[in-house]
Prior knowledge:
Blueprint: H1 3-25, H2 38-46, E1 51-61, E2 67-78, H3 82-106, E3 112-119, E4 128-129, E5 144-145, E6 159-161, E7 164-166, H4 170-178, E8 183-186, E9 189-191, E10 196-198, E11 201-205, E12 208-215, H5 223-238, E13 242-247, H6 248-253, H7 255-266
Parallel strand pairs: 2-3, 12-13
Antiparallel strand pairs: 1-2, 1-4, 5-9, 6-7, 8-11, 9-10, 11-12
Helix pairs in contact: 1-2, 1-3, 2-3, 4-7
Amino acid sequence: MTEVADETVVEMAYRWADIEDEMKNWVRHLGKPNEEPVGRGIAEALSHAFRVEAMVVESDVDIDGDVYFSYGYRILFDVEDRKARAAAQAVRDEADRMLAKVIATAFSGVTHSVEVRVVSIGTPAQGQVCGRPGQPPPKRHIDVSDVPADKPDSNVPLTQRDQYWLTPIEVPFYDALRETGLVFAVQPWVQGTDSRFRLDFLVFYDGGMVAVELDGHETHRSKEQRMRDAKRDRWFAARKVRTLRWTGSEVTRNPQECVRELLEIVRGRQSRV
Length: 273
């Protein structure tokens, strides 16, 4: 990174507090009775972020050898906190339309992007951390990243629920799980010892977690896949995270019953790992 780029990122980090203040003044009435001004609503949503980072997101070199940088903010919300997850979605919805405009006004002539991530509060910083009130949160024992991905290539039909693309057996479980009011991550990546795991769901409760895997016949019938599943289960068990598995037929037949079994564990009616 050149000295100029480095100075720009430091300036962005310094100016983030001004951007948050400006959001409170960015009042856009929607013409509906009792509608909260959007700018103030996004300012409230931003307050739920546990960390904001300013960073160079990409660079390019022209034919003359001059380097061009593109800058951005990464806004991180706690995957385990219900309000933070809702706030992250609110920021996602408005980032391109409004938040980016405020940033562009503050830094005229510099291209910016806004990236919203829902992750563990122990996720390491990747850019210049913006000054914000409060102490940095403690690192959790598991690093979770719950960032909705684009629709993947799949041999099975996928259905969109909120910002997620779900398989046929994930859809009824997701719908039933939403009715419980629990805080949960969908298709999260979890950083293991020497690799990353992708779960179907991770449910949070009272400082604990329950990993949920829905085993479709086609994807879990091979010996290699069963060995990978067992290794993953052992890794979670060593960190006192219980793994629950249901077959596709169990979920399809009665997703509410599967979720009730999960609730019994969350509420302490069954032994935990």
